[in-house]
Design brief:
With 228 residues, this protein is an all-alpha fold. The protein contains ten helices and no strands. The radius of gyration is 23 Å and the shape is elongated. The termini are far apart.
Length: 228
């Protein structure tokens, strides 16, 4: 009986090289974006230059221009990266919390004070962008779609808790109040107001949950939770 053997396909060197170049390009762009965040935190929006980013990344200025062409494109890419990171973070926390709406809302609040997201470097960069958003339609469009998803998630959870316990609040107004408070706590942390720490900011957020959703949250149960 005649048998045949399937010849193994030799690795395509061209494909490997293309993948390597793509990985190298993505790595380099991320390096420049991280350097941009550093510069925004240190110098602010107006005083951040392509040269500052290049020096911070330890790369030539030509490489910065090659990848992003202009300061505006670099800043848009940086804002996109920060939103992608933030979105992935809260969505992951939501998924890990399961289906219970109270656990999911608590997970969203706690995620805002995780060290990987909530640190002075990134908070300062966020504030730099917030200060420019009003006059830059590109920033408004980018942040608007992302913020809408996040805000709608909070509204839905507030509505579920209202239906579950018979609360009398307006779900949308309550959700706006919660997200506004979280933004305000980030601002206080960035400014170092009242010697606020991530832990004390988190406790303040928990107080909001306890006061608005007393049938679902308690100080004893929630303040014992630790943030990463």
């Amino acid at each position: 009986m005649k048998t045949t053997q399937r010849a193994e396909k030799a690795p395509d060197k061209g494909d490997a090289e293309r993948r390597s170049r793509k990985a190298s390009k993505e790595t380099r762009q991320l390096q420049l974006i991280e350097a941009t965040i550093d510069s925004l935190a240190k110098r602010g929006y107006a005083d951040t230059t392509m040269a500052d980013v290049a020096d911070g990344a330890g790369l030539s200025r030509g490489i910065v221009n090659f990848h992003f062409e202009s300061k505006e494109k670099l800043l848009v890419a940086t804002l996109q990266h920060m939103y992608d990171e933030y979105s992935a973070h809260w969505r992951s926390a939501l998924q890990k919390a399961g289906e219970d709406p109270a656990r999911r809302l608590h997970a969203l609040v706690a995620a805002d004070f995780d060290r990987s997201i909530c640190n002075k470097r990134k908070l300062a960069a966020w504030c730099a962008f917030w200060g420019e958003a009003k006059s830059r339609p590109t920033y408004q469009a980018l942040s608007g779609s992302r913020d809408q998803d996040y805000q709608q998630t909070i509204i839905d959870l507030c509505e579920q808790l209202k239906q579950d316990a018979g609360y009398l609040y307006d779900a949308e107004a309550t959700a706006v109040g919660l997200s506004s408070m979280l933004e305000g706590l980030w601002l206080r942390l960035m400014m170092g107001a009242e010697n606020m720490t991530r832990e004390s900011a988190y406790r303040a957020a928990v107080e909001y949950l306890v006061s608005v959703f007393p049938k679902h949250f308690s100080r004893e149960g929630e303040t014992g939770e630790k943030i990463a």
